[in-house]
């Protein structure tokens, strides 16, 4: 099946630092979604991207849909303790029989030290 | 209202019990999803309902039985589960089933099978 390679797997940073994570695939994607999940809760949608090259911001978060449609990155600026959690990229691969089904990256576990 | 609600929040059941998980959304979405998630892993798709009809069953064992009574409600009936079925069960919804539709997740039900 389709796979999304998400990196890094985990990050340990100091409060105030910037964070960058990315996802790559061997297949093209129609949509890139970035979710954050707190322990014991469901994933919360942070940013949705629909067009190749699209750059979208949501507060301190910025995400881009790669021009080749095979990658995306998420940046968090000036991290704060509540940024702690697991970040997942996800998207439905274009074509095939995967209509609407999301493929998820393995997640990036973010720890922020005060 | 952009919320997906799930009940119960926690459930402990024996292997001979029958229980049900409930999911509700009032966003007018016509696609609803069940996912299973193990700790620190991405969600795994189980079922997709589109316009109250089962669209995708990801080869889920028959001890899990989904039901969509109407466009706002989604149930997951559980019977004769195994300890390895213990996980966080997530419900999600999107406007339609398709590649350009964002999925919104509920908070999940933490299931423990003894």
Model description:
The complex is a heterodimer of chains A (114) and B (114). With 114 residues, chain A is mainly beta. Chain A is built from no helices and 11 strands. Chain A has strands at residues 5-7, 10-14, 19-24, 32-37, 44-49, 55-58, 61-65, 71-76, 85-91, 103-104, 108-113. In chain A, strands 2, 4, 5, 9, 10 and 11 form a 6-stranded mixed sheet that branches. Chain A is globular and about 45 Å long. The mean pLDDT of chain A is 93. Chain B has strands at 4-7, 10-13, 18-25, 31-37, 44-50, 53-57, 64-70, 73-79, 87-94, 104-105, 109-113. Helices cover 0% and strands 56% of the residues of chain B. At the A-B interface, β5 and β9 of A face β9 and β10 of B.
Quick overview of this protein structure:
Chain A is 0% helix and 49% strand. In chain B, 0% of the residues lie in helices and 56% in strands.
Descriptive keywords:
heterodimer, A: 114 residues, mainly beta, five-stranded antiparallel β-sheet, 49% strand, B: mainly beta, four-stranded antiparallel β-sheet, globular
Query: Could you say which overall geometry of chain A the principal axes of the C-alpha atoms support?
Result: globular
N-to-C CA distance of chain A:
40 Å
Radius of gyration of chain B, CA atoms, in whole angstroms: 13 Å
Helix content of chain B: under 10%
> What structural class should be given to the helix and strand makeup of chain A?
mainly beta
Please describe the biggest sheet of chain B, giving its number of strands, its sense, and whether it closes into a barrel. Answer: 7 strands, mixed
Number of helices, counting only DSSP H or I runs of 4 residues or more of chain B = 0
Q: How many DSSP helices of chain A? A: 0
**Which two chains share the most extensive interface?**
A-B, 26 and 28 residues
On the 0 to 100 scale, the average pLDDT of chain A is 93
The averaged pLDDT of chain B comes out at 94
Low-pLDDT ranges of chain A: none
């Amino acid at each position: 099946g389709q796979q999304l390679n998400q990196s890094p797997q985990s990050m340990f940073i100091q409060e105030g630092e910037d964070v960058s994570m990315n996802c790559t695939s061997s297949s093209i994607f129609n949509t890139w979604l970035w979710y954050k999940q707190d322990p014991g809760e469901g994933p919360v949608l942070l940013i949705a991207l629909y067009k190749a090259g699209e750059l979208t911001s949501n507060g301190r978060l910025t995400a881009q849909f790669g021009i080749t449609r095979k990658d995306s990155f998420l940046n968090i600026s000036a991290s704060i303790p509540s940024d702690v959690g697991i970040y997942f990229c996800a998207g439905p691969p274009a074509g095939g029989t995967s209509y609407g089904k999301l493929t998820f990256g393995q997640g990036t576990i973010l720890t922020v030290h005060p | 209202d952009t919320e997906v609600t799930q009940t119960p929040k926690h459930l402990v059941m024996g292997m001979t019990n029958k229980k049900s998980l409930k999911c509700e959304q009032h966003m007018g979405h016509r696609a609803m999803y069940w996912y299973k998630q193990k700790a620190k892993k991405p969600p795994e798709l189980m079922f997709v309902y589109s316009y109250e009809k089962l669209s995708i069953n990801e080869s889920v064992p028959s001890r899990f039985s989904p039901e969509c009574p109407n466009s706002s409600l989604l149930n997951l009936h559980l019977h004769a589960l195994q300890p390895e079925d213990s996980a966080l069960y997530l419900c999600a919804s999107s406007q339609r089933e398709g590649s350009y539709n964002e999925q919104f997740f509920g908070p999940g039900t933490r299931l423990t099978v003894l």
